Automatic annotation (TrEMBL):
Name of the protein described by the UniProt record: Rhomboid protein
GO CC aspect terms: Golgi apparatus; membrane
Segments traversing the membrane: 21-39, 59-88, 100-125, 137-155, 176-209, 229-253
One GO BP annotation of this record: retrograde vesicle-mediated transport, Golgi to endoplasmic reticulum
Chief site of localization: membrane
Domain of life: Eukaryota
Subcellular location: Membrane
UniProt keyword annotations, A-Z: Membrane, Transmembrane, Transmembrane helix
Topological category with respect to the lipid bilayer: Multi-pass membrane protein
Amino acid sequence: MKQTFVQDIGQQLQSAVFSSGLTTKLICLFCIIGYFLSFNPQCVQALAVIPGHVMPPNFWIWTFLTHGFIELHIWHTIIDVIVVFLYSKMIEPLWGTNELLRFYFIVTIPNALFATCFYFLFYGATFNEEYLFQRPIYGLAAFLGAYTVVIKQIMPDTVLATTPLFKLKQDQVPLLIVLLSTILWFVHAVPIHFLIMLSFGIIISWTYLRFFQPHQNGTKGDTSTSFSFASFFPSPISPIISLFANTIFEIFVKLKLCKPFVKKYNVSSPSSITITIPGPEAADADRRRQKALKALDDRMKQKQTITETWPELDETHQSQLLAQTHQTQNSSITIDMTNSNELTSTLTKEDLNQLFFDTEQQQQSTS
C-alpha cells in the first residue's frame, strides 16, 4: 500500500512536470536557484526587496522582479514549486502561456510594492530601522494566495473535506489560509511580510479576475455571483461584506477606476427576452453545462459501442455452424443443362426414391 501510494504521487508529479510549459519550468528552476543563493547574505540583499534600498538614492527597482525567487527555508521552496506546477497544469491549458505569465507579474510586483509601503508605515509608527534595512521581502506567498482564488473561480462548489461539524468547501480556502497565516505569525512561525503578501495576493488576484481579465469573447472580468467578494466569507457575515464591497465598487466606478456592469437585453424575439451579463467565457454555468454534455456524450458512445459489438463465437459454435452448412450443401440439387436433349442431375438417395415413386404413379395413371 505504501509503495503504491508513493508510486502514484511520483507519477502525478512526473506528469505535472512534463505537461507544464517552458514558463512554468523556468519559474520553478529560478525558485530552486534562489534558494541556494539565499545561503549568501549578499545575494539576499541584492535580490530581495529591501525598503531602504528601494528608496533614493539606491533605486534597486529590479528587486520587485527577483524577490519571488528567494526563499530562506527549504519547505517554503517545496511549497512554491508544487503550487506553481499545479497552477500551470490547471490554468495554462485554459488561459495560455502569455496570460499565465502576465497574471504572475500582476500578482507579484504590486504585492511587493504594497508590502514595502506597509514597512514604511511600520517604520513611521515605531522608528525601528529594521523595517528599512534588515527585514527583506521575498517569496511567493502572494502567488499562493492568488492560486486559491483561481481555484475558487474554476471550482466554486467543490467540497474538499467533510467532517461531522462542517464541510470545507473551496470558497472557504482563501479566508482559511489567511487565518492560519495570522496564527503562524503570532507564534513567530512566519514573518510579517508573509501574511501581508498572502492577503494582498488574494485581493489583487480577485480584483484582476473580477474586473480586468480579458477574454476571447471580448468581455472582461467575471461577474458571476459565485465569484463575488462576499462569497469568500461565511454566510452569516456575507451580507455585511457585500454591502461594504458594493459601496467601494460604486466609489471606484465614480472615480472611473472600474466600469459598471452592463446588462444586454435581446428583445428580437417577441416570446422571450434574453439577458446577457458579461463574464468570462468559462463561467460557472458554461463550465457545468460543458461538463454535463461531455459526460452525456461519453455515456452515449459507450452504449453505442456495446450495442454495435457482435458476440464472439467459440470453436464449438463455429464447428456446429460448419456442420450445418455441410449438410445443407449435401442435400442440395445441382442441374446442369449441357444440351437441350440431355439432363444430368445429381441427386441424393432420398430425392431418387421420391422421383421413382412419382414416376410409377404417373405410369399407373396413364395405363
